[in-house]
Structures are given as structure tokens and as C-alpha cells.
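Bench log, entry 3. Co-assembly request; chain sequences pasted below exactly as received.
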Amino acid sequence: MVGEILGLGQAKARGGSAPRKERTMKQMILDYIRNEYIDDDDDDVVLDENTKLISGGIVDSFSMVSLKRFIEKKYAISIPDEEASPEAFDTVNSIIALVNRHVAKKG
Amino acid sequence: MAYPTTVKDTWRADLDKIRGDGLYKEERFIHSPQAADIMVEFPAGAAPKEVINLCSNNYLGLSSHPEVVAAAHRGLDERGYGMSSVRFICGTQDVHRTLERKLTEFLGTEDTILFPSCMDANAGVFEAILGPQDIMISDRLVHASIIDGIRLAKAGTNAIHDTYKHSDMKHLEQKLQEHADKRVKVIITDGVFSMDGDLAPMDEIVRLAEQYGALVFLDDSHASGFIGKTGRGTHEAKGVFGKIDIITTTLGKGLGGASGGCVSGRKEIVELCRQKARPYLFSNAVPPPIAYAAITVLDLLSSSTVRRDKLEVNAKFWRHGLIEAGFVVKEGDSPIVPVMLFNAKLSQDVSRDLFAEGIYAVGFFFPVVPAGQARIRTQMSADHDRPMLERALAAFKKVGAKHGILGLDKKGIIGKYGQ
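Structure output for the full assembly:
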């Protein structure tokens, strides 16, 4: 079940590994952030898994809600509001850690 | 009476952090009525100095207008100083209903309810009308009071919330499609955005709202009285007057400058606010002198467009002058003209140097505006005359030259000062 949620089944079938799984999730979240939060004509923003999203002013904490909703839907998890802090959503890496925790909890 | 040292120290540390982050707000004391030129004591204790005011919301110059002041005096004499009551107990006078009727007519809606401020109107309206089946879809740059109102509605009613990129109609349409199953969908926008001075594309918003069965909410605080040919607001400017479901606006800017605000719109929405909006139910009625003065303001503006016309001319002159001088100015079509400096410290330095030259204009930087978007926000008034604006322009050029930013574009300024 966990493997399915993370696309792990596919990765395993192709002989993939955990890093590949992480890359997939990372790419998906990065793509979402790029489409959802960055203006089409904004060429100044450099975006990777360590980019500060909220403290760096790319995603404001008020608009973070759509990112949370996207992740919850995509990975069939529910992140309680108290865990959806600006710190937890400040980088793609910290988001991945949060998602993985919840997916593991689901078992 | 218990005020433990630990608590006191915590709050002192909070204040020190605000100071340390360069975000501490110092108030400047004005020793004159609000006007295009004012006497300002700054820093505290200094002798008051005459400066040209480029940072007030006194767009139409009505804050100290003799007819408005006289109307407030009349209100004081005829209906007293205050109501000592909320509206629904014993706080509603005939003049409150008169003002509400006049606002309805001016804004082109079905009915209006007064609030102590537009901040209160925005804080109260969503919670009063929405439920858990409903969605609020707001522009990412809406005013802080709308954000508070949305938060209250989320907490109080479990209504859902989403945002769209600033004035990005493609993104708004995506959101309307994504939330098509919701009972009530409200598109929420400012008319004129207070930090950038640009106008929301109300015509396109109304078109999308009609297509997807959504309501339109417009906060026209920085537009009422002067945007549009007869000053009715952004909906007039964009050709959709009479088509907005909810308008909130303030009596504290163009419409007189004192205080008070309103929700104006569909009858049922206004009626629900009268029954359920907490800032309305639990705050005193707008004081009679303000109600009298606001009625006079609306009468003045309905009988002549002279003041909004002069404001428009001033804004064009000012914007053109700054661009010609070599400043980077945000595009727009309103009396809000932001001079972009990108660097927070530079914006503070320029503001300080302008004050030394007799110009009062404030620097804005993160978190008030996005990081790397620091600026001096200038605001025109119908009370500015041409010699004043020429003096102000000369001061801007002098200070701009001192900092070596004239003629530099965004990259040039960031290259010199960082972001």
C-alpha cells in the first residue's frame, strides 16, 4: 500500500530504488510549486529541493493551503493543521520528510 | 495585577527582535490637520517641520475640506458625539440609514450596512454568509483585513479557501474548475491593490464568475470616490458597474478619511451581516459626526467630478515625471505610484533623505511587500498642486542621484545594492 502511494511498485518493477522514489516525489512537488506559485514571467526564481519557499517569500503561508491539499490528495494522507507549519513546508525536502512520515504512519 | 518578570521579559524580547529585524514602526507626530502639506515632528522631540505629504490615503483631499468639517460639526450639534450603543440595541439613527442608502446608490448595489471600519467589514462578512460547503478563492495580494476575514470564516464555519496568482485569470479559471462542486464560490479581490496600485481585471473576473456560477467580492477601499469616470470605483472603470455581488469599502480614505466602512451588495448578504456579522453586532455604531460628514462627501462627489479629475491629472503628471527622471515605477493607473528600490535598506535610506528634503514618503519592505520588492510607495491627492509636485519631483531626483539609481533598471539597482 505504501509502495503504491509513493509509486514504489513501479520503481521496484523497473528495478528502481528508494532514491528514485524520492526523485519522483520531489519532481512532482517541484512541478506543482512552479505552476502554482511562480508567475510565468518570473525568471528570477531558482527552485530546487532546498529553496526556502515560505521564509524565502516564494510561497506565502496563507496560500500554502493549496500545496497542502495537493499533497494530501496525491498521497491519500491527512496532515493535521498543527503539523502543517511554515517550517514543515519551508523546503521541498522538509515536505518530503513530512509526507513520508504520514505515509509510513498509514502503513 | 500579576505581571511576572518572565512574561515581561518574553514580551521585551519580542520587541527587541522586531527592532533587531529592522521592522519596528516609529510613529511620526503631525501638528496640523491632514493635508497635502503637513507639520511633522520627527524624530520625537524635534521641532515640527513642514513637509509635502506623499503617503496619505487622502486621495480626494476631503479629510479637512471645509464643507466636510462643517457637516461633522452639524452632526455633533444635531445628533451628538456618540451612540453609546451597538446598532441593534439603540444605536441606529436616521442618518445611518440615509448614509447606507446613499452608499448603495453610489456603489451600484442593492443594499448597504455600515461597519466601524472596512477592516471590520472584511473581518465579518465571510463568516456571516458562508458554510462548510463553500469556497473562498482570493487573489494572492488581497489586503490583510481580507486575509483575517477568511481565517475567521475558516475557523468559524469550516468554509474552504484557495488562492490564485495575482490578477492571473487563467489560474483563477483553473481554481473555479477545481472547486466546481462547491455550493457557494466567492471570488475575492481588491479593486486597486494597495501596495502596487494596479487595478484588478474586474471585467474578466465578472465574466468568469458568470461562466462558473460564482459570486464576486470586491474591496474597493483604494478606489471608492475616484476610480472610474464618476469615481464609483474599479467596477465602473472596468465597465461592470452594478454587477458586483459584494463590495466592501472604507470611509477612511477617499470618502472623507475619518473612519467607518461598509458591506454593500445583495440584499440577503447585507441582511445576514446585520444578523450575524460579529464586528457589526458587537461594536458601537458609526458616530453621528462621521455619518453626517460621509453623507456630505457622497453629495459632493455625486454633484461634481472635479476632485477626482484633478487627482487623475496629478497621478499622470507624477508617474510620468518619475519615469522621465529615471526611476523604476510599477505600472498602474491609480494614484498609488510605487517607486521600486528592491533593497530594504535602500528604501529606508531614500525615505530618510526625502524627509530631509521636505518630502514625507515611506519605505515598504518584506514582510509588508514580497522579499526583494522594497519600494517607496507614493500616493497622490487632489489637494496637491503643481508647484508642490514639482518640488517633490526635484527632491526625488536629488535623492535618486545621491544614491546613483537614476536610469538604472531593476537589475542595475539590485546589482548595486543587492536584493
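Residues 1-16 of chain A have pLDDT under 50 and may be disordered. Chain A touches chain B at residues 37, 39, 56-57, 60, 62-63, 65-66, 69 (CB under 8 Å).
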